[in-house]
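Q: Joint fold for the lines below.
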Amino acid sequence: MKAVGVVVEYNPFHNGHLFHLQQAKEQTDADLSIAAMSGNFLQRGEPALVSKWARTKMALEAGVDIVFELPYRFATQHAETFAEGAVSILSAAGCDTLCFGSESGDLEAFTNTVAFLEENNEEFQSKIKFYTGEGHSYPKSIALSFQSLAPSESFIDISKPNNILGLHYIQAIIRQKSSMKVETITRKNAGYHDEHFASATIASATSIRKALFGSAGEIETIKQYVPETTYAQLINYRDQYGSFHSWENYWPLLKYKLTQSNPAELREFYEVEEGLENRLLAAASASRSFQQFMESIKTKRYTWTRLQRVCLHILTNTRKDTMKTSEKTVSYLRLLGATEKGRSYLNSKKKDFSLPLVSKLSAFSDPDIELDIKASRIYALGQKDHGQEQLLTEEFSRPPIMLKDSRR
Amino acid sequence: MKAVGVVVEYNPFHNGHLFHLQQAKEQTDADLSIAAMSGNFLQRGEPALVSKWARTKMALEAGVDIVFELPYRFATQHAETFAEGAVSILSAAGCDTLCFGSESGDLEAFTNTVAFLEENNEEFQSKIKFYTGEGHSYPKSIALSFQSLAPSESFIDISKPNNILGLHYIQAIIRQKSSMKVETITRKNAGYHDEHFASATIASATSIRKALFGSAGEIETIKQYVPETTYAQLINYRDQYGSFHSWENYWPLLKYKLTQSNPAELREFYEVEEGLENRLLAAASASRSFQQFMESIKTKRYTWTRLQRVCLHILTNTRKDTMKTSEKTVSYLRLLGATEKGRSYLNSKKKDFSLPLVSKLSAFSDPDIELDIKASRIYALGQKDHGQEQLLTEEFSRPPIMLKDSRR
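A: Joint structure:
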């Protein structure tokens, strides 16, 4: 059986994801699909709208056959580390091809760019250093450096977020000496950050989330942009747990955490750079909401994403030494769910997997798993009473989700 | 001018406090009264019902002339340290006499007991060790040890909380070589822990607090037990800040703090003894309220008070090294408020004070003051929005309360 791998957040699973998934299977002639999916906290440093379990259900119901969790230590990081983690999972799980969405959609442009960057790495790095020294954010500095080196049509546009991720997937595959092949599909319509609906059926996850936090009427407007199964899972989640998760749910906790910390303690958290701790402390007491807090700490030097990640690591009490370990890749495959087809793939292949398959947390111990458990417990505090208790217990005791029927 | 000193929490100021204050002035023939008052967190490890500022107003309006703050490092401790702090303040402020309320009311019984304990200290300590080793709480062990040594009518009953405090005041005066005299007054009626109203005008602060957290109708029932000024301050506080403070206001924050900590981190907090950290972690995720949490961690070995103090130090991020400094006494006099009479006393006497007088936080720096500022900022998080912001800013910027009129 031939498997195609995808790297996803599904926050939430929408028609754009469905299109990509179907194309990925078709283009690679795959028998089944495997997703490396972020857990409860995401790359942009924010809580997922609904838990990893609800998102796993959405994925399975929409055609993903196996969902593995991308651990917190990789999922909440900049593109390079994020990609290393995802590639190590998909590669260990025996994927034939990794298929990613990109703004470019042109694989040759990617391989050209990878080769060019390898040749000119030294100059590229020194230019990045120059631009960050000028006060630009890291992503901006990368784009400016690349532009100043070689603006050519045979390269990808490195200022686009999905192109950057794709680049890092390819570099990670090379670094990890993986035999996994690569394929890319042009992303349909909606840009990653679009806040408004632009097409009849495809909308960005950002615009969908925006509608979900609106009035009851607004929630209905997302129906045309997501599979029915996603819509049902979303409504069900809100009824069962109490609300969707947003940073605002955690703002009282983050404000408290900042209030009870001193600057030296804050500097110990991952991604807190010299000087930032004082900005955080001053802004915390003056802000009534996370949005207001973020607006008051934002500068040209730090992207919104970067600052959200800083906040997330403070919220989850994640220190520099926890994130900067010598392990550059994931060391296990944590199964969140599978279809029947996925299960038979796992049964026949798991003996060949280069990493242990983890279905039960109680039977496995690893620092990355511990961090995921802690992150999930804090994620649970975004709900109240019964919803919180359900989330607190299910992380540790819940078996992977096994989809029985084949609704597709 | 002759000053009498009292050690108080005024949580809230009630008729029993008024009686004690008036008796203290009469018995010692004092011209004015000085209070060493706990700040926003109290000896039993709980937040004060209303802020130190509101309680200072109550005190001044009821006849106290000067209020100094007993810092967090002393106010939230067992009787011995609490007493050391209070005595060092009142002594430095030039009090002629310290007058404390006690169950005994017999000063000779106190001095007999102090002398007896000094003579038999070694045996006393070894007995305490024996009883704590048997699994009794520390206060219980003290009572049992004393009882086994010398149950005599010429001694005080050492199992009573106010007798114990009185004993420690006297011992602290001796240790600090203070020239301050001592006087004691029998506490009227209500026992410290009484939850129900027992007399027509005197009720315990515990029963008053219980009524305040009840329905609107219940709040009115406290009117007969407190001065009019207290009642007005309480209603005013609730209107201005949002609610009275109880541990339940801070439960989501404590639950979060516990959830994001690991056992090794918890052991660093003051009064967290080996083994307790795991009990705390397990109970936190299973509890919906502070009350439920406390009931599930309570054992014979730890008193409720002791466990509340543990929770408080975790909430305020107060580690062992912060509380166990080499300074055994308070090193400044932080003025919270004064009447006109109090002001003229301060003006004429402050040059003779053995400790610096602090009216403005911005003009003074001390580790104990820093701890008080942090504690007050966390105290503020017990309110929402506007009430929280007021409390957050007033701690640092508010000048002492100066009572102008003499309503009494």
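Q: Anything notable?
A: The mean pLDDT of chain B is 93. Chain B touches chain A at residues 252-253, 255-257, 259-262, 265, 285, 288, 315-317, 374, 377-378, 381, 385, 389, 392 (CB under 8 Å).
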